[in-house]
Amino acid sequence: MNKFLSLVLSLVMLCSMVTMASAEAPITLDVWYALSGSSGEAFNQIIEDFNALNTGIIINGSYSGGYNDTSTKITAALAANPKTTPDVLIGGQVTYTGAYGNFYAGDMAQADAEFNFADVFSGLWDYGIYNDRYCQIPCGISTNLMFYNKEHVAAAGLDMEANPPKTWAEFIDVCKKVQEANAGKPDFIPFCVKDEDWLMNSQIMQCGNPVISCNEDYSVKAAAWGTEECAKVAQWWQDMTREGVMKSTYNENGVNHFASGNAAFFAGSSTKIIDWTASMGDKLGAIEMPIFDVQAVAMGGNTICIFPYYGDERAQAAWTFVKFVTSSAANAKFAVNSGYLPCRASGAETPEVVAAMEAMPTYAVAFKQLAYARAYVNIDDYAAKSTALAYARQLVTEDLSYDPLTAMQESAEMYNDEAGY
């Protein structure tokens, strides 16, 4: 019945799109996307699918760089002239909409019954909120996954499927055993990580900490991690370095290091699943992220938004495209071809997603983590937070006698000073 209702909903949406077709001239929309590689290819296929519908709306898509580059680009456009923005943008931050008073996409998602707001996994909506109001819609959501090379792990006599490390302390022990079993291999390291901040955000959440605290009206958003409970996060980074099972210099090129077979474990985005399944085959495995106190992973990925600065007709056309992109069928197709996860409950039940989970066990692990993926309060200065967290890691890994609690406290103070709190 759910699949039947989803089909009916898709047909209704398609009819509404065709109704908008102009008898005079098509509406051309500019769409920026911060997606590259297999993710960019998967999204371009969705654009082609939409253009093939001949709705009277033509999508002109263009790659806008990574998340940070896209944020810089769109912020500059807003500062120069709102009419230099694209009609639609897929990126990784919400400050360039909510902070500018643009809640168009979020308002439409709640007002348009065809969108089916409740079908989107509830926890994902937190990723598109600015100051308690929806401004962007979940599009390509990922979880921070612990990948592993089965050959390196088997050499240590370990079985990650039957007995994976549940805690970060157990993970250190596993890495030490892997190090011993692979001794003598040049450039080998048990663990590396692509996005150190993302992993650290997850670890802070696992301490029962919100990462960012805020007051009732969101006028103060302060670093929350300078606590005794969070000291264990800095302690872990220090212990991993002390034991020689992680090297910060290797993390800088962590993706290639793991892909080339020179690391046993890699913490990174589930979007790596598609490419690595193709290149590594049966050697690729994944386990749920180890924890400290509570099971949690920081949510990652992208959201989609609309800049309604070109009049109602183009704004409505943009909404038609966004509804298509975030529909059950289109989002599921994008998910399985990019490594992102389906954002809708109905999408998770589509044949494409079910088949992907059966064919790629790593994808099933990433989806399982979605149940406890969390988003912290969105802030205005992500760079300041990144710098502050990097400072904490630097303090405890460059000086192995540095007190972890002091490092976390000084890191939090650095962010609060930079953010003006």
Overview of the molecule:
By secondary structure, the protein is of the alpha/beta class. The protein folds into 2 domains: 2-142 and 300-374, D-Maltodextrin-Binding Protein, domain 2 (3-Layer(aba) Sandwich); 144-298 and 381-419, Periplasmic binding protein-like II (D-Maltodextrin-Binding Protein, domain 2, 3-Layer(aba) Sandwich), CATH 3.40.190. 48% of the residues lie in helices and 16% in strands. It is built from 19 helices and 15 strands. The strands form 5 sheets. It has a 5-stranded mixed sheet. Strand 9 and strand 10 form a beta hairpin. Helix 9 (231-242) packs across helix 19 and helix 16 (351-359) packs across helix 17 (361-369). Mean pLDDT is 93; it is low at 17-23.
At a glance:
With 421 residues, the protein is α/β, with parallel strands linked by helices. The chain contains 19 helices and 15 strands.
CATH architecture of the largest domain: 3-Layer(aba) Sandwich
Mean pLDDT metric: 93
Radius of gyration: 22 Å
Q: Helicity range of the residues?
A: 40-55%
Q: Class of the largest domain, according to the CATH hierarchy?
A: Alpha Beta
Which class do the helix and strand fractions yield? Answer: alpha/beta
Tell me what portion of residues adopts beta-strand conformation: 15-25%
Number of helices: 19
- Classify the fold: give the CATH topology of the largest domain: D-Maltodextrin-Binding Protein, domain 2
CATH superfamily of the largest domain: Periplasmic binding protein-like II
Give the biggest sheet: 5 strands, mixed
The side-by-side strand order for the widest beta sheet comes to 2-1-3-14-6
Low-pLDDT stretches are 17-23
Please indicate the count of domains.
2
- Shape assignment: globular
Oligomer state equals single chain
